[in-house]
Amino acid sequence: MTFFAVSGLTMAFGGLKAADDVSFEVAKGEIYAIIGPNGAGKTTIFNCINGIYPPTEGKIIFRDKNIRGLSPDRVARAGIARTFQNIELFSNMNTMENIMLGRHLFMKTGLFRGGLMWGKKSFAGKEEIQNRRKVEEIIDLLELQSFRNKMVGALPYGIQKKIELGRALAAEPELLLLDEPCAGMNAEEKQDVIFWIKDIQDELGITILLIEHDMNMVMDISNRILAINFGRKITQGTPQQVSMHPEVLKAYLGGDDEPDLPDPAQKEHQQA
Ligand SMILES: Nc1ncnc2c1ncn2[C@@H]1O[C@H](COP(=O)(O)OP(=O)(O)OP(=O)(O)O)[C@@H](O)[C@H]1O
């Protein structure tokens, strides 16, 4: 079975091909990163995968089905969740309520209404209790207990990013798309995110497709990497292979100078 594959994906905005004949495959259980300079087309690929843009050409295969052109809601129902580059939370709702929004795919009654309107023994009440239980599991997993009832607008940036991750997990995805999970974070917060992502892979068995500018993080966390520039694939491979590719070095440095990319081989050596 093909778990996830993109083949010949092209997304044109007028004369500009933001994604140009991009193909790659992600195996179940891996952490797969897409890297590239600003404007390379990374977010466009995510937007095509989760149905925000209908691709101009190509196929997007998830569990053997072509999901190209499905609406974001249907893509989510198929098992693909996403976080965004800029935090997309409801700042005047608390942590629990924001994560609960990720459960809407499973709700037959309206959000938060079940327990209130129909009593605990009704179908709506049971559904509400079940959803709240799942949300509590996520709050425990991400260690968000002390923020459960706090309005998210007032919480630190790193915590808000974690709540957004929690909301995506609430949809119980098989594939999780993370768009720059470390953007705007300090070194300690980034370490935290790396820890959670590895945990999500190991403990929940969720496959992760990641966009990230922080090369240290990408090299540390990814099983494989796709490098793109000007909408086109440069290369794909292990962190070691990709970090040594001359076109990747050129794309990042604009020349053939000594690269500033971390050396995964050295990291492995240090860890040994
Ligand atoms: N809706 C749109 N309409 C027109 N052009 C777009 C649209 N979305 C993206 N683009 C263009 O497509 C190109 C790729 O943009 P995209 O946001 O995918 O790059 P990116 O690699 O995610 O960049 P960054 O790292 O800065 O987020 C850019 O030139 C961008 O201006």
Automatic annotation (TrEMBL):
- GO CC aspect terms: plasma membrane
Q: What keywords would UniProt list here?
A: ATP-binding, Nucleotide-binding, Transport
From the Swiss-Prot or TrEMBL record, what is one GO molecular function term? ATP hydrolysis activity
Question: Residue limits of the ABC transporter domain?
Answer: 4-255
Q: Where are the transmembrane segments?
A: none
Q: Which Gene3D superfamilies does UniProt cross-reference here? A: P-loop containing nucleotide triphosphate hydrolases
The name on file for this protein is Branched-chain amino acid transport system ATP-binding protein
